[in-house]
Amino acid sequence: MSSINRAVVAAVAVAAPAAPSATAAPAYKCASSTKDIDDTSYDGPWPDNWKVTVKTCAARSGGTVYVYAEVRWDGASFHPVDDPTIFDGAKLRVQIKQSREGTDPVVAEGDFPQLEERLEDSTSSGKRTGTYRTATIRHRAGAAALGDSVLFLDWHGDGRGYQRHDYTASPTV
Known about the structure:
The protein is mainly beta. The protein is built from 2 helices and 9 strands. Strands 1, 2, 3, 6 and 7 form a 5-stranded antiparallel beta sheet that branches. A 4-stranded antiparallel beta sheet has the order 5-4-8-9.
């Protein structure tokens, strides 16, 4: 083989795309929904609803199901800047459920209380918008499984404890 042919073969080998990996990342299927949530601890004249969207995503690789969720919010801005007393608690529960006829049983779940600090954070002008993505939970699950998310909010001073807000589950994987 001439030196010119070797150079062409080497150039083609370098420019050719790499072969796909045998361990490609699983493709996630997602669903989201939005809720207007009333701040039950506030009874004043200013708008106090929070618009909260949760997107739940699930994927399968072999017998293992992977689920994560992303929360987006636009909160009331009448609270003081970076007010750590808006909530007594706030967390997102991410679940893996086995899809069955009737109620889908939970086979794995994880709570993410870090959400509270993010919700209470604001810009210097008091605007409360943001996003939070949970870590991914995983579990070996049967043929049809899905991801689900539940937002728990405990408003400071309302005396009601955690209030549950259910969101749309992911498609079945």
